[in-house]
Amino acid sequence: MAKQVALYVLLVSVAIAGITTAPPLTIVILVFFGFKIYELVYFRSAKFIAIKNRISAHIQDCNDLNDHIEELKSTHIGADMTRRGHSDYHDNSKWNFKRSGFKKITNAPNVYNCSRSVCDGSRRDPMKYVCKYFGFSADEPTLSKFENMLNNFTAVEDGKNSLTSEKNEILASISDDVPFLIKKFSKKLLAKKLGFKDVDLSDTYYPSFKFQYVSAGGNASTENTIVMDIPNLNAMVNYLNDRIKWKKSVAGQRALMTSALRKHILERDNYTCRQCGISTYAEPHLLLEVDHIIPVSKGGMTTEDNLQTLCWRCNRTKGAKLNV
Ligand SMILES: [Zn+2]
Question: SMART domains of this UniProt entry (predicted)?
């Protein structure tokens, strides 16, 4: 405490001396460093540490949800989808040049260098061309993989909203106890010092497929990028379903794991986790997921009886047990 007072005294005296004698730029620099010292002192104070300890369980929950979302983002369609079927990489100089622009994108697009007519065709009928040129065959395993991706990515999108709301709620709950200047000018640092992990709200995790045509001379080029976002994943699931030659008995039993079915299951279960009983009525920002009771990998079907609503915490625990 004595140290804190000494710092303030030093700061005020320097500021007074500065204001009376110094030019404007020096004043700005002094105010800046003064504020940095104030921040430093505040984040080390017993008062701040008490606030941090009080909400640490909530922050841990938020960080766990963040980890969960990051895990879901890494859902893949195939182990090595760029090298199946007709897909091929050509590292021509133009592509290498453009590549530097993709540094921030976690999933650089899978590129297919093609003729102009293929590039144009991919615009007219995107899912057909992705299947044909990136080697996805119309069969049940492929459909299941895309359904799984759609289900997980929808959870990511819902989860990002949950996470933002939960974080804002936690910050609002301590708002009265945090000094005005810290709230106003040190928002990011406050979240960091409280222990929040960085949250990535971007949608760069969606895989994408790119058809690229470059003329022999290099002057003419067209490209068409198909991002597998939620609408496109729904389109893909429907496209594959139409193409698969179902045996009649299977087609009759099986439902399609689209966004519409997901919504239907959540409604049917009254937005309540069937494992622990928590609901969005009790916890408005709760992330709910749709889970296969018997996993697809263990022969479970996408049927209404085999689908259930789970909260993200129960689903995560179940997933961890299955992976052991
Ligand atoms: Zn639960």
Answer: HNHc (SM00507)
Q: How far is the CA of 309 from the centre of ligand 1 (A)?
A: 9
Residue whose entry in the numeric block shows the structure tokens 């100089």:
93
Ligand 1 centroid distance, CA of 312 (Å): 7
Those residues whose C-beta lies under 8 Å from the C-beta of residue 162, and which sit 6 or more positions away, are 65, 285, 286, 287, 312
What is the DSSP code string of 184-234?
HH-HHHHHHHHTPPP-----TTS-EEEEEEE-TTSS-EEEEEEE--HHHHH
Cα(311) to ligand 1 centroid in Å equals 4
152 closest CA partner among 33, 265, 66, 70: 70
Residue 259, judged by CB atoms within 10 A of its CB (0-12, 13-18, 19+), counts as middle
Enumerate the β-bridge partners of residue 226: 209
CATH of range 250-324; options 1.10.760, 2.60.40, 1.25.40, 1.10.30: 1.10.30
Query: Do the strands 208-214 and 110-113 form a parallel or antiparallel pair, or are they unpaired?
Result: parallel
153 C-alpha vs ligand 1 centroid, how far in Å?
A: 19
Q: How far is the CA of 273 from the centre of ligand 1 (A)?
A: 5
Q: How far is CA 116 from the centre of its chain?
A: 34
pLDDT in tens, the chain (324 residues): 545 655 665 666 666 666 666 678 888 888 999 999 999 999 999 999 999 999 999 999 999 999 999 999 988 775 444 433 333 333 344 444 444 343 444 556 788 888 888 988 888 899 999 999 988 989 888 999 999 999 999 999 999 999 999 999 999 999 999 999 999 999 999 999 999 998 899 888 999 899 988 888 777 888 888 999 999 999 999 999 988 887 766 666 788 889 999 999 999 999 999 999 999 999 999 999 999 999 988 888 889 999 999 999 999 998 877 765
